[in-house]
Amino acid sequence: MEKDSRNGDMIYGVIDDMEDYLAGCKNKFMSTTEVVVDRGQMEDFLRELRRKAPEEIEHARRVVKNREAILDDARNKAQALIDQAEAQTDELISQNEIMRRAYDQADSVVSMANQEAINVREAAYADAEAIRANAEQYMDDVLTYLESLVGDAMKHASKNYEDLIGTLTMFQDRISSDHSNLHPEDYAPETAAPQEGPGPEAE
């Protein structure tokens, strides 16, 4: 089966491994729809999923850092505008009216830059929180499904084992009965003893 190629999506890789494992399991006795699974192997898959979940959350943290980089860039641009406004103010220092307008413009630029920085930061934190919440919900859904899958597999395996033992016991009783009918003198209630090796086939 082709693995999911999305960068960093390690949980999908574990799920693909589980699907490959289940596809290769043998069918249960007298069943065409159920398979026999190794409990230890399934528990290994579950432990691997729980181990990789923090890595997916770390991916969400990296998204936050990227948003922080955007915020820093906005601050740098704001500072560049401030520096430009200050340079223009220095050139017009001798003209009171022009200087006043320059300072008003600089204050306006600073206010807009600060507001933009706040907006970018809030958007970054909101996106990161949404990603983290979605990742946790996804992991909870996956683990719940896998626990249910393993539990059902164990129940079916136990039931099929009990059915098999019952069937074999029934066959053993019929064989013993047929054997005793063939040699009644050897199967008297007081003297009957277990026979070594397989008995002759019943006709």
Topology:
Blueprint lengths: L9 H15 L14 H53 L4 H87 L21
The residue fraction in helices comes out at over 70%
Can you name the CATH architecture?
A: Orthogonal Bundle
Mean pLDDT across residues:
77
For the termini, the CA-CA separation is 50 Å
Please provide the ordered H/E string of secondary-structure elements. Answer: HHH
Total of domains? 1
Q: How would you characterize this protein structure?
A:
- There is one protein chain.
- 76% of the residues lie in helices and 0% in strands.
- It has 203 residues and is mainly alpha-helical.
Keywords:
203 residues, mainly alpha, Helix Hairpins, rod-shaped, disordered N terminus
Short structural description:
The chain is mainly alpha-helical and 203 residues long. It has three helices and no strands.
